[in-house]
Each structure stands twice: as structure tokens, then as C-alpha cells.
Description:
With 411 residues, this protein is of the alpha/beta class. It has helices spanning 38-56, 70-75, 145-160, 201-225, 231-246, 252-263, 284-298, 313-329, 336-347, 387-410; strands at residues 2-6, 14-15, 22-23, 27-32, 89-93, 97-102, 105-110, 119-124, 165-166, 175-179, 184-189, 192-195, 270-276, 305-310, 361-366, 371-374, 377-378, 381-382.
Amino acid sequence: MKIKIKNVGPIRQGFTAADGYMEIKDLTVFIGNQGAGKSTVTKLISTLCWLEKTLFRNYIKESDLKKENFFKNHCRWHRLENYLTTDSYIHFVGHCYEFTYENNIFSMKPLEKEGYLVPQIMYVPAERNFLSTVDRPRMLKALPTPLYTFLDEFETAENVYKDGIELPLDGDSVRFEYSPQNKLAYIRGNGYRIRLSEASSGIQSMAPLFIVSQYLANSILKKKEEDAMSLEKRRKIEAEIESILLNKELSEEVKMLSLKTISAKYGKGCFFNIIEEVEQNLFPTSQRLILFQLIALLNLTKGNRLLVNTHSPYIINYLILAVKAAQLFGLTPENEETKEAIKHDVAKIVPVTSCIESDRVAVYEITNDGAISALDTVYGMPSDDNYLNNLLEEVNTLYSELQEIEEKYEA
């Protein structure tokens, strides 16, 4: 899967290598300043992957693509429609379709469909904290549309883990619990139990992200182990889809929301987890734990993908650890005892389930002028010479300059 983007919102020249095409790997990370376009890229990828799935499933007909403003209407779900102009260019090469947006025209080219794993696509918005700061988030009005979709999965996951699930946080054990009777989420720690709405901002960000990711990744694994959907059930769902598509009283936005809901009734082949600001409000060591847990969920089922954007240098540095650990786990010394010793020592730092090979990883930097570049690799690992780490080094430089001023005037 790959994508080429130019002149879409803050993304101007786009990717500066490979003829402009960014490869979306199993784990893809976007880093950059606020407003540089990280969310723009991730939201476009989410939209195009969803369109591919819906076209494959016949939720959308090929004739629908020729309707005026078809693509802009679908971009409205992520509030991207005003980012598209006559200069915008998008070319997306998916698993079974190619999509092109050029001169305000959206077109499609079918590809070989064999082997396509229909994804469960989950967009985890940065605004997820809103769902944690109130006791009954369903009562909130006028939220961004993706947040309502995320809330649907959050409420399902709450009931699945109502008896409790430990959150991957640094420090003492912290568990998420849910009471179906009064529809309230709780956080249980060492000697206390409080409502999620009373918890710290880090826990309020972590809890919905973690339990939704955990629930969906495991549900995909479970569904793959179950029998195929019955013909009767499939026909019932297809009838529901047709009734929505033919209902002229429904707006395009309502139709999309309804189709996303029905989509959950179909079996999925893999999980595509797309997360904004994965590190939001988390202490660095907790950032490491959530990243390692997300990689473990990525590794749970063949075909899964994880796409995140971040402002945190720690996320990149912990990703480097996961890649390095995979290299060490791959060592094959002649002595079997030595091999086991390596695994034992490495697992103390990075769990076996959280390792990832470098060829499955891509990290892209987005600059304020709308250009995108791939992070260099050193010995097969993402380089620590990147935008975020360079900002940390800048602090040391500025501190040295202050010391020089101090020495100058003390003399």
C-alpha cells in the first residue's frame, strides 16, 4: 500500500523521494510540528482505506464514484473537504483498488483482489479524552464524527472488560473497570477506586485507546477462528445496506455513519489501528509500555497494521528498541544455550511479542513547508537523528549559551 499527496491542506510538495510515493508499512509513524500535516495524512489514509473496503464489499457502487463531489463528501467525515482544491493531487495504491484525485475529479482503477484481507479500520482521535472526562459520554452533543464512531467501539469494549483489565502504565498496578448497571467506568489502583472522569489526564487518554485497541485486535483473532458467516445472515446485511443506499431522505454523512455501523456485522481479516498522538499526556515510561502493547497487538494477526502520529521523541526511541530487540532475537549462535540466554536478557527490556523487524517499519518526518521525508535508517534501525531528537539537543545548546552569558557577566 502506498500514497502520493500534493497540495492538500498543509501538505504542499509531499514526499520528496520515490516519485512522491510513501509506502504504508505494517507500522508507520508520522512526526512533525503541530499543524504540519500529520493528521491530514493519517486521515486521508483512513478515508481511502475505508473507501477501498466499502467498494470491495459493494457498499458503494462504481457508478457512485462519478457523482459530483463524491470524494469531498467522504472527506467531510474527517473534516478534510476544505483541504481539497483544484491543485490537490492524491494517488492511492491499495490492495485491490487504485484511487486518484486530480482536478477535482475522483477516479478508480481495480487491481487484483486475490488475498485482500478486509480490515477493521479504527481511527483513534486525539479528542478521545472527551469520552473520559464525563461519566456518560453518549450524552455529549456536536462532537467530531470520528469520535462518535470511536465511542461505539469504546462502549462495546467497556462491557467486554467490565470485570477489569490492567492498563499498561508505569508504577503501581492500575486497572480499568466498568459497571453496566450504572454505565460508569472506573479506575482501580492501590487502595482506591475512582471514576474514570476523576482520573489523571494520562489515564483518561490511555484507557479508551488501550481497551478499544485490545478489544478489536482480539476480536479479529477470534473471528478468524470462527466459521464463515451464514448465507442467510449475509443476505440480511446486504438488504440493510441497500435500504440505506436507496433512502433519499438520508444525507451522505448519515449514510456513511450507518454503513460503518453495519460494517461491524461482517467478519474482518485484519485490524488497521490508526492513532493520533499516541503519547498524549503520558509519562515517558508509560509511552514505552503503550507502544510495546500496541506492537504486540499488531503482531497478533497477519495483515494487521498500525499507523500513529506523534510529537514525542520517546516514541521514536522506544521504537528503535523494539527493532533492535528483533535483531537480537534473530541471532542464531551455534550454542543453543547462548541463544536462549540472549532471548532471556533481551526480553527483560523488550517483550518478545513487542519486537518488530525493520523492514516492517516506516517513519516519516513532515516539515512546516509541507514536505515529507523518510527517516534514515542506521544498521537497519530508524535513525535517532530526527526532528524530535534534534529539538532535545537544541535545549542543551541553548543551555550552554545561557552558561556562556553567565560566565561573561560574572567576569
